[in-house]
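Researcher: Checking consistency across runs. Here is Non-heme iron oxygenase ferredoxin subunit again:
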Amino acid sequence: MSFERACALSEIPEDEALAVTIDRYDVALARHGSEVFALQDLCTHAAVALSEGEVEDCTVECWLHGSRFDLRTGKPTSFPATEPVATFPVELRGDDVYVDVSTTLNGVTPA
């Protein structure tokens, strides 16, 4: 595993995602309670940045058509999306968030 610093924990809003680029991947970071999740920042339905959507009930919503993705699994929880997004391991180190984009948690290959 190759974790890289993505941001400070304080930079991730409570009800929104934060867009970061790690290596060549655009990643959306989101919080749910004390947990932080990293997903590919690209809706599988319409190729729109998920980081521009709202985070609620451990999901992130695509702002364009309303698809929701589970933060833990990357699976869509509502239509029109039917394919999952890649999810990445996250480590909290002090006040910093580290993400490993060389490994996916759900086996989905990032675009």
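Researcher: Does this match what you'd expect to see?
Model: One thing to look at in this run: The chain has one domain: 4-99.
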